[in-house]
Amino acid sequence: MLKCWGKNISVFFSMLFLSIGALYAQDEEVSFEMKLSKEKLGINERLRVDFTMNKDGDNFSPPSFEGFKVVMGPSQSISSSWTNGKRSFSKSYSYILVPTARGRFTIKQAKIEIAGETYKTLPKSVTVTAAVDKPNGQKTVDDVADESLHLVAEVSKANPYMNEAVSVLYKLYVSPDISVTNYRPLDNPKYNNFWSQDIPVTKHTAKNGTYNGKPYRYVVLKRVVLYPQKAGKLEIEPLSLEIFVDVPTNRRDFFGGRIYSQTSKTVSAGKRSINVKALPENGKPQNFGGAVGQFDFSVTTSKTKLNASESLQAKVEVSGKGNLKLFRLPEPELPSSLEVYEPEFEEKVRTTIGGMEGKVGNAYTVVPSFRGKYPLPSISFSYFDPKKKKYVTLSSDEINIEVLEGPNNTAVGNGSLGTANQQLVVPTGKQFHFIKLSPNLTKIGTNFFFGSNRFYLLLFGPLLLIPIAVFSFKKREAMASDIEGNKMKRANRLARKYLSTAKKQLGNKEPFYVALEKGLHNYLKAKLKIETAEFSKEKITSILQQKNVGEHDIEGFITLLKSCEMARYSPFSDVQMQQDYDKASEVISKLDKQL
After folding, report:
1. Which residues contact 379 (CB under 8 A, 6 or more apart)?
2. What angle separates helix 551-566 from helix 509-528, to the nearest 10 degrees?
3. What is the rounded CA–CA span in Å between residue 398 and residue 581?
4. Which CATH number fits domain 484-594: 2.40.230, 2.60.40, 3.30.420, 1.20.120?
5. Which CATH architecture is the domain 293-403 placed in?
6. Where are the domains of the chain?
7. Checking phi first, is residue 148 left (phi over 0); if not, alpha (psi -120 to 50) or beta?
8. Spatial distance between the Cα atoms of 538 and 62, rounded to a whole number of angstroms
9. CATH architecture assigned to 19-134
10. Nearest Cα residue to 385 out of 323, 328, 318, 331
11. pLDDT higher at 475 or 293
12. Cα dihedral 51→55→56→60 (10° resolution)
């Protein structure tokens, strides 16, 4: 009983002390004032302005800060504490200003509403002088941040060849005196005149290093591989970031620990220039397709013996390290009596900080029509090796294809060669078959068969089939000789295939935009008869304008290509991917009608 009564007494006194503290707080006079970090500063210094109050208020209205530019703020801080039963409250709005000119300026009144009444600060004057030597003066939090953060772009090669890989590492150097809490990009470079590929940084690991001879910690924030697409002096645009940091102050907390102040700073890597060397004309092979790096080359077939009307796969493949996505593969010269379909492009390439590695190839489906032996002549592939500073030519071995069973080719001798684009009309069996009559004769009595309607129908009916057979034969011959039309159909099927792959990858940004870009490239390659090495947005726009394609449709197609490029380093939502897929189908349909 006494124990319970004691508890009630303690609760009563606690509530009494709180009530008394609240009464003291209510009776405290309202204070609202402006505090300046300094009243005289150089034009290269910063000014901190704090508007503090001892009671919470609403509808804060700052002055216009004439003669100054606000670089940070307002940042709000609130503190509340109880000391000997008395509550102390403080709220402040802080601004960081930089002067825009020399002279004497007045920071006018700020206003706020507290308990239904409006309070104003007193105006204060600030004198801005010529630039001062900061190290001899008292450093502000922002001064410390300026000296402690540096964003540097490290370029692997200053004088690369055209289409040679150049890596760019963006390193943030941080002094041990401060700590970085977060960052956000303000401006991502576009890398004009470069083919670019971002290498994602999965983990930011701090390492020890030096900057201007002083010890720093650094972390790699961004990695990019660039392939310059033209010779001359090229500019790499700067990367700008906003960095949020904690900076130690000279103040200490109750336990003696250093108090940190938060601030933000915009850092930029600055522009970098590289001098791109053109590929030498001396010794350049005629079949050079733009490959730069170190490569291996091979031509293989899935089989060397087969029957007529069966198919085999002939693969032209380049592997190694270099600009694997940016050159034209050589095409095989096959005998005209072999039916060759449009190749399917195969790619297994990964991009590291050193450049592209892997292999690319074209897979041709080949169908022989006649029995015999057909040689696949040796073809060559040329590339420029920037390490050796010379051109290298590789040649494949000759491959013999033997067709064991099938009709004989009476028009063209075995093994005769023609161009890969020629198509041969292959007659199958005899062109016309006579009707074999096996009538079951019955006694017709007085009705004679000869001279009857049935007699004339059977006599002249086969003759009526001859024009139909000739027309059908001519139609098949025209379809078989329409090489460009057949190629167009196969290319359109290939484009639809890649669009179908893109549809399956909706929701997966990287695979979706890779498949979408392949579909667009293969469609235009067939329609406009241009090679991948010539594939630039300016070239596409110029040719489509010559073909009298509408400006709106041209712009839509170019926008799709830009979306595929931006997907390498920008976040894209599922809704955006669905819209790009629908737009691709619509644009291809419109271009098809106009081309």
Report:
1. 299, 316, 330, 331, 332, 333, 395, 396
2. 140
3. 43
4. 1.20.120
5. Sandwich (2.60)
6. 19-134, 144-276, 293-403, 484-594
7. alpha
8. 51
9. Sandwich (2.60)
10. 323
11. 293
12. -30
DSSP single-letter state for residue 533: G
Rounded CA gap, 39 and 359, in Å?
67
- 19-134 and 293-403 share one CATH topology? yes
Which of residues 481 and 9 earns the better pLDDT score?
A: 481
pLDDT > 70 in the chain, percent: 77
The token pair that represents 367 in the structure block:
């169908």
Measured distance CA(416)–CA(424) in Å, rounded: 12
> Between 2.115.10, 3.40.50, 1.20.58, 2.60.40, what CATH number should domain 144-276 receive?
2.60.40
Model confidence band, residue 581 (pLDDT cutoffs 50, 70, 90): confident
Residue 489 has pLDDT above 70, yes or no: no
- What is the tens place of the pLDDT at every residue in 288-310? 999 999 999 999 999 989 888 88
User: What is the rounded average pLDDT of the residues 517-539?
Assistant: 68
Structure tokens at 276: 């791109």
Angstrom distance (rounded) from CA 232 to CA 228? 10
Give 171's contacts (C-beta < 8 A, 6+ positions apart). Answer: 151, 152, 154, 218, 219, 220, 221
- Residues in the chain, total: 595
Residue partners of 194: CB distance under 8 A and separation at least 6: 226, 227, 228, 229, 234, 236
Residue type (1 letter), 8: N
The pairs formed by 280-286 with CB atoms below 8 angstroms and a separation of 24 or more are 280/384, 280/389, 283/390, 283/391, 284/391, 285/380, 285/382, 285/391, 285/393
Backbone conformation region of residue 421, classed left if phi is above 0, alpha if psi is from -120 to 50, else beta: alpha
pLDDT at position 528? 66
